[in-house]
Amino acid sequence: MHGPEHHFLVPAVLLSAYYNVTGETDKKEEKINLAQKRAISVLGGFCGYQGDCGAAVGVGIFVSVMTGSNPLSTNEWRLSNLATGRSLITIAEHGGPRCCKRNSFLAILEATKFVQENFKVVLQLVLI
User: Fold this and answer.
1) Gap between the Cα atoms of 57 and 61, Å rounded
2) Does the first or last residue of the chain, that is N or C, have fewer Cβ atoms within 10 Å of its Cβ?
């Protein structure tokens, strides 16, 4: 329920859904592996000790991997940070204490809105 695996789970789910919807499934494994390498540095307790929920960081990882962002990018850099910020606001407005499962769900919900607004790709959510 709680732990840093959620910091990778969020971008992995989003990348998988994105590449399935766009039909670019050949890119999926490579992009998910890259997200895993990036997420490894988002340690447990990040939300309380660094003030940035790892699920929100996971959304930023998703957008940065999907767009090919790097520290010198312009629009891709902006989009990655904007997606992280929107997810973080949604999570913060819900309130604490930390709950990785809840925050991952909130981050994914926010990311689906962001992707539709900015990339015109609809990532459907199936709630069971």
Assistant:
1) 6
2) C
Question: Quick one: tokens of 117?
Answer: 């607004």
Dihedral angle of Cα 33, 60, 73, 66, to the nearest 10 degrees: 50
Q: Which of 18, 14, 32, 85 is nearest to 56 (CA)?
A: 85
pLDDT in tens, 68-102: 999 999 999 999 999 999 999 999 999 888 788 89
**Angstrom distance (rounded) from CA 56 to CA 119:** 19
pTM above 0.90, yes or no: yes
Judge whether 102 and 94 are in contact, CB under 8 Å. yes
Chain-centroid distance of CA 77 in Å reads: 14
